[in-house]
Amino acid sequence: MIETADHGGIAVLTLANGPVNALDLEVLTAVPEVLDSVADARAVVLTGAGRAFSAGVDLKRIVEGGPGYVERFLPALSSAVLALFGRPEPVVAAVNGHALAGGCVLAAACDVRLMSGGTIGLTELAAGVPFPTVPLEVMRHAVGPALDTMVLGAGRLDPGQAVAIGLVHEVVEPDRLLAQALRRAEALCAVPPDVYAFSKRQLHAPALERVRAARESDDPEVLRMWSSERTHTILRGYLDSLRRS
Fold first, then answer.
1. Distance (Å, rounded) from C-alpha 16 to C-alpha 18?
2. 2-188: which CATH topology?
3. What is the CA radius of gyration of the chain?
4. Is 186 assigned a catalytic role?
5. Which residue ranges traverse the bilayer (predicted)?
6. DSSP SS3 for 245
7. Strand partners, 114
């Protein structure tokens, strides 16, 4: 589900879950575990196998698993995002294709985001589901005021549009993407590790404070909406529309 490789002390983690690296409970549970397994790495690069970085949440699993699956899935999503966001060392996203919904959030949780193609965006509202607190606040940290349009518009951005709002830092040719991500990670490693980690904590503090303030009140309502029969009816229709397109 997540392949690991070492490049001179930089851990490259590759999402490898089917054709579009959909996020299910198992993948999300693996993210913190794999990050723990490379705790000694000087930096982390996150990318996807095949043609996509991650096309987002496996909505079919949500519908088939019902409320019991959703109750386990949503905390796993938040834990995976926080594990990336809270990694003290440099974390670079090498976005090699579509990064949608949860895939977009995982990329946004990284310090630097490079992209070679595809589209990136938040499609949750188009699928009829709201955002848990952690993904929402990590996205707010990444794009600031542009978040309103990303959430409520539920659209997709090409790499150039993503650069314009600060979601992506650099557009790179596909055959150079991983090498450039490794170079960016190596450059960040030039900062003393304790200085980098402290500065990162300072930058992330407002987002984490917003998470602490809103999570207790908002996440139960998010769980209720994701688990409702109305939502699952909408999701079935959304999946049907994707199959017809």
1. 6
2. 2-enoyl-CoA Hydratase; Chain A, domain 1 (3.90.226)
3. 17
4. no
5. none
6. coil
7. 94, 170
Cβ 143 vs Cβ 149: under 8 Å: no
Q: What tens digit of pLDDT does each residue of 235-244 get? A: 988 888 877 7
Length of the chain: 245
pLDDT (0 to 100) of residue 242:
76
Q: Would you state the pLDDT for residue 39? A: 97
> Catalytic one among 64, 124, 170, 209?
124
Least Cα distance to 157 among 96, 107, 95, 100 occurs for 100
DSSP string covering 188-223: HTTS-HHHHHHHHHHHHHHHHHHHHHHHHHHHHHHH
Residue ranges of the domains in the chain? Answer: 2-188
Task: Give dist(CA 142, CA 134) in Å, integer.
Answer: 12
